[in-house]
């Protein structure tokens, strides 16, 4: 089996409402680039990556000369062919490698008529549990969906629990002043007795602010604080809080993982199938974490159904997955895979069992959302559409005003 072509299609799929975060926002939609790798036996493998609100289509197509004639089974050779650690410093290709790896694993699974999890050692669970991923939200195009006040946040979380069965809840913070987000976080705990909580301000807080926040929530059922401040050295100063610390920003490769093992800063490593360069590197990293008794979770970088499938196959095979995975998925209004969105049942999603990744494209949906992308184009992920000209500092002091019922400019 040899690769004969690679195609890329950029789509934009609407969200229920714009999602705010410490660096800006998802502007009411996700922009994702769908990758199709075709083999000489007629099979097509699927991959997916994001571009921070922008298309990665040209970069994917630019890999064509690297891939023509390559054997999809030769995944280690693929890693060095695309993302040589020195050569790719000039055009970081880790996320491109991930999308192609997804597609090659999909091809191999289809060729052998087995699901990807069987290529990774076999599944240990049929369903992967997820946390609710809660955002402060601007109103959607129809004027609904705003999440700004503690009361709105609590009701939104209760609604998601009723719909999907979540028992773990993660608040994406770093938008409003820490004291206000503390009020919101405590309101969340009060609205969901017996459930577990996570707080993630995307490293927007200073060490001192993060310390004060951690002490103020120490009585709550916290699973962890995720990136409460920037950097391994910053988080190392918070280890005496008594709350586990997690990251998806400063342990995203094996060099950083080695540093964290040698001089511990974080307790839980959030493995992202895109950030780490594929599913297989995440499996390797999870094994290192298992050896040194570090926790692991599955991170979400804003997925449609193809990347969600990679997250599910990863979650299926990790023996040390003791935390619910993250997903933006429930904020989407639709998907580009056949059958539409995968359902949550009791806070979990069933791992696809078909050959390869177990998902196929819906051509009509792909065409619809490719056309929507051509109409709307991209957006700057690191800007807030309700605050023209704004950009954050790290640590930040340019907070949104919680008294302002902001709308998109």
From TrEMBL:
UniProt EC number: 4.2.1.40
A Pfam match: MR_MLE_N
Catalytic activity: D-glucarate = 5-dehydro-4-deoxy-D-glucarate + H2O
Sequence ranges assigned to domain Mandelate racemase/muconate lactonizing enzyme C-terminal in this UniProt record: 150-244
Organism, as annotated: Rugosimonospora africana
Protein name as catalogued: glucarate dehydratase
SUPFAM superfamilies xref list: Enolase C-terminal domain-like (SSF51604), Enolase N-terminal domain-like (SSF54826)
Single annotated GO MF: glucarate dehydratase activity
Signal sequence, start to end: none
Highest rank taxon of the organism: Bacteria
Lineage: Bacteria, Bacillati, Actinomycetota, Actinomycetes, Micromonosporales
Top class in the EC scheme: lyase
Pathway: Carbohydrate acid metabolism; D-glucarate degradation; 2,5-dioxopentanoate from D-glucarate: step 1/2
